């Protein structure tokens, strides 16, 4: 990847041909953020099972093909740097329905941190989500991710509940955020 300052970052809808690169970026970003960054002590087999189920090329291709969902990627010189995924809500909250929209993932790779890509992808996702529902918007976020909680709070999201997010047999304590 070129690191010259004039290399433009392109944000575009994800394509089926992005599945392998998206899966690799998702896998590495999850490891960088939650395993190395937050030092969550996932048991090795739970982590491996989760990473394979969530970020294999096959799993990613299946998610990309979901008709009611949207994906965007940020790329520079052909390398994916970040991505966002939104679609019908699946969070376990009594007021939430699949007709509401959920920001499912917003991942920025380690080398792209600080470029503003997370904010750009968030704004794009929120616009799409609002255009595809007349109900509230939802986000699930790990309870210890203060940076994400602060970012989402700045965009009007408030804590509406909590749940346990499975990483294999391990459970992460997550907050459910809502914006009306």
Topology:
Elements: E1 10-13, H1 19-37, H2 44-55, H3 57-64, E2 70-76, E3 79-88, E4 101-108, H4 117-131, E5 137-142, H5 146-154, E6 158-167, E7 170-179
Parallel strand pairs: 4-5
Antiparallel strand pairs: 1-2, 2-3, 3-4, 5-7, 6-7
Computed structural class: alpha+beta
Helix percent band: 25-40%
Q: What gap, in angstroms, lies between the N and C termini?
A: 40 Å
Element-level helix/strand string: EHHHEEEHEHEE
Sheet-strand content, in percent, reads 25-35%
Number of helices: 5
Q: What features would you describe in this structure?
A:
35% of the residues lie in helices and 31% in strands. The mean pLDDT is 95. The protein contains five helices and seven strands; from the N terminus they run βαααβββαβαββ. Strand 2 and strand 3 (79-88) form a beta hairpin. It has a seven-stranded mixed beta sheet, with helices on both faces. The protein has helices spanning 19-37, 44-55, 57-64, 117-131, 146-154, and strands spanning 10-13, 70-76, 79-88, 101-108, 137-142, 158-167, 170-179. The longest helix has 19 residues, at 19-37. It has 180 residues and is α+β, with helices and mostly antiparallel strands.
Short description, anyone?
The protein has 180 residues and is an alpha+beta fold.
Q: Which keywords apply here?
A:
180 residues, alpha+beta, 31% strand
